[in-house]
Amino acid sequence: MKVDRAALSRFVALRLRAPGAATAQQAGDRRSPFRGRGLEFADYRSYDPGDDLRLVDWNVYFRLGTALVRQFNEERSLSVKLCLDVSASMGFGEARKADHAAQLTATLAMIALAHRDPVVLACVGSSARGLRARAVNLDGLPELLHLLERTEPEGRGDTHAQMVAHLGGGRADRLVFVSDLLYEPEPRDALLRLCAASCPRPVIVHVLGEDELDPDLSDTERVIDGETGENLVIRDGREARQAYHEGLQRWLAEVEARCRGLGIQYLRSDARTKAADLVHGPLFRAQVVEHIAGGA
Q1: What sections of 184-282 are H helices per DSSP?
Q2: For the chain, how many structural domains are there in total?
Q3: In Å, how far from its chain's centre is CA 135?
Q4: Are residues 81 and 144 in the same domain?
């Protein structure tokens, strides 16, 4: 897949917005539910033998005769997991859905790593295996980009099983799944439910190609499904065009409604759109990213 590495430097003023407390093991600048060393006072607890005496509040001890240890909110990084659909259907379109999705994924990875939010990247849905990389800071970004650039959409693997293996048992602070969602209803719903169970506020970026949004059916008599090989006969191009658009809108509405019902942020993307426009537009408005000063 193609990634414009030079374009990634345009996003240094952005960071991923935290939908909740950060839970990564790596130290960072995000509020976490953990108590430890930090700048923000959280609470007191009783002194236990072996505690650091520097954390004892001696003013309280001299006043009340009780040894209390000061606790602080520990600052952590966000744990970020990015899943990119690389099944065969992502390879279609003059502006390929796969290239658009890879550029967006690389951009999100760069934004996260620039602020020391560790990233796990998994390419799922193809017949290939081992398409996974991890980085904890910008030094690891080239490995993630190399994974994207050496991967091509092909075949149809068990996307659900691959995502289960890559996501692991823990929940991510930020999970983004970039896909055209061209799955049968039951497998697609299983993927959505997996995303919902793996993150407090997951994000689905639904990538659509030009041929899906506005296909030319005027002179078409037969359409072949690129993945299943099924032949679909079209009798009247104009009627087919109208029926297609009506069906597309129903399908998109159903997918979006299901995502919202599961607590998933649903964003739609045209493969012809530049990643920069998507990040600074829909992703920024949806508060997936924010300026480094904070705020939407």
Answers
A1: 185-198, 210-213, 237-261, 275-278
A2: 2
A3: 15
A4: yes
Same domain, yes or no: 269 and 142:
yes
**Helices within the chain (DSSP H only):** 58-64, 97-113, 141-150, 159-167, 185-198, 210-213, 237-261, 275-278, 284-285
Give the SS3 label for residue 214. Answer: coil
Write the pLDDT tens digit of every residue in 52-110. 777 777 787 678 878 877 766 666 678 899 999 999 999 988 889 999 999 999 999 99
- Cβ–Cβ under 8 Å, residues 89 and 226: yes
Whether residues 196 and 172 share a domain: the answer is yes
Residues 42 and 81 in one domain: no
Domain-located, residue 151 = yes
Of residues 246 and 74, more confidence is placed in 246
- Axis crossing angle, helix 185-198 with helix 237-261, rounded to the nearest 10: 30
* Per-residue pLDDT at 262: 97
CA distance 166 to 148: 16
Q: Which of 60, 76, 92 represents a domain boundary (last residue)?
A: 76
- The CA distances from residue 103 to 96, 149, 232, 248, in Å, are 11, 10, 33, 25
Write down the pTM of the prediction.
Answer: 0.78
φ and ψ at residue 88, rounded to 5 degrees: -60, -35
CB 268 within 8 A of CB 251: no
- Which of 76, 105, 139 is the last residue in one of the domains? 76
* The pLDDT value given to residue 156: 82
- Residue 26 scores a pLDDT above 70: no
Identify the pLDDT of residue 139.
93
Q: Are residues 98 and 243 in the same domain?
A: yes
- Are 72 and 83 in a shared domain? no
**What's the Rg (C-alpha) of the chain?**
23
User: Within this chain, do residues 44 and 122 fall inside the same structural domain, yes or no?
Assistant: no
Per the structure block, which two tokens stand in for 161? Answer: 């099983």
Cα distance between residue 94 and residue 273, in whole Å: 13
Range of the domain at 173: 5-21+77-291
